[in-house]
Specification:
Layout lengths: L11 H4 L2 H6 L5 H10 L11 E6 L6 H12 L3 E6 L4 H14 L6 E5 L3 H6 L12 H4 L4 H6 L1 E2 L2 E2 L2 E7 L1 E5 H6 L9 H15 L3 E4 L6 H12 L6 E2 L3 E2 L4 H15 L12 H9 L3 E6 L3 H4 L13 E4 L12 E10 L6 H12 L1 H11 L2 E2 L8 H6 L1 H5 L1 H5 L1 E2 L7 H17 L4 H23 L1
Parallel strand pairs: 1-2, 1-3, 8-11, 13-15
Antiparallel strand pairs: 3-13, 4-5, 6-13, 6-14, 7-11, 7-12, 9-10
The chain binds alpha-D-glucopyranose.
The site of alpha-D-glucopyranose has 13 residues, from helix 11 and strand 13.
Length: about 450
Amino acid sequence: MGRTWVSGRGGIARKLSRREFLKVGGAGLAGAAILGSSGCGGGQGGGAEEIVFSFFPDPSGSVQALIDRFNEENEVQVRLREMPADSGQHFDQLNTEFQSGEINIDVIGGDVIWPAQFAANGFIADLSDRFTEDERGAFLPAPIEANTYEGRIYGVPWYTDAGMLYYRRDLLEAAGFSRPPGTWDELKQQARAVQEQAGTRYGYVFQGAEYEGGVVNALEYIWNSGGDVLEGEDQVVIDSPEARRGLEIQRSMVSEGVAPEGVSQYKEQESATLFLSGEAVFMRNVPRMYALASDPAESNIDPGQIGIAALPVAEEGLQSYSSLGGWNLFMNANARDPDAAYEFIRFMSDPEQQKFRSIEGSVLPSRQELYEDEDVLQNVRVAELGQDAIQNTRPRPVSPFYSDMSLRMAEQFIQSLRGDIPPEEALATLQGQLEEVIEQGRQQRA
Ligand code: GLC
């Protein structure tokens, strides 16, 4: 798909065409001077002419627009290498290339769950000297923590994610509901009432496929029923009555017909396509899907019809949690020109660039000050609507063995969701498997 600016909203991109936006880069020219000396010819790594930045496909076009801007201002040129949209496949590809030693990427736009593993293997650079503690203070604490491994920092938070409950504000109101559901039972009731009244095809869509997003969704059901995966750093506690309740609720969405059977194959995009075509009352998704609602090519409904709330809980009184997601800027430990690579990281995570990308791509900034910025408040609606979700994010286990833990979880969660095995069996199996992954990982590293 070509560059598609999100239409129908105010904000920077409405007022400035891309060309104009690139020109407004006057302030960034100081950065060009710095790069001119360190990036091209004089850098530690021998002065690469080109650095490669990897990231997953971005339909908003805002990532490429920022790269174009950087390239106009600097001698060193950044080239975007597109990676898989699925976080797990993306990870595998990077991991394979790192292991083979044949990796042509300098800066990685990477998932918040990767730093521990990549750092433990020496694949990504320790940025502690460049990204000072003072500077870190300007960012949201949760992603800073997620990028920290054994006291050192390995990534600069770029944007943050939280699982959110999208709902059809118009349909809920028409059915007489003045607020979105607080519990899963309420969600089912509201979904049924709306479906009956408005004929909406599905009650709820989420991400149930066997991949990282499926793990995230199942964990949210578990957390929002009072369960967890680990206690402390490595004590596995997943085989609990609370976790069982979480998976039972997830399964009941399908067995009671609130969610379609197909949900066990949906990732972010499939669920968004259904919701935006008007086929579902509720959807769990990440903030960037909100941008698509403004694009008539992507959506039959408009942003005014969408409300956003925190995910429901198993029963009143429980705390609602959303999984902490988000994407960060890592540097290959063998980047060809570390100074230039870091200059690009600095550029992408600057307030100005973050603001542009948040407005255009509907992603949540990682810098605290931007949550008080007028432009952001007015134009990144998802930041305001999703406040409750953003404030209660919870990290997935921070572990150098997370990718293996995640694979095991994905295998069990999908079977439980499909009704192939009862939730308690999935959890009992996982208890043993996760203990083994942690134990083996420890032995290998010893
Ligand atoms: C989002 C999150 C990421 C998570 C992924 C799962 O991209 O930002 O952290 O792993 O969803 O699909």
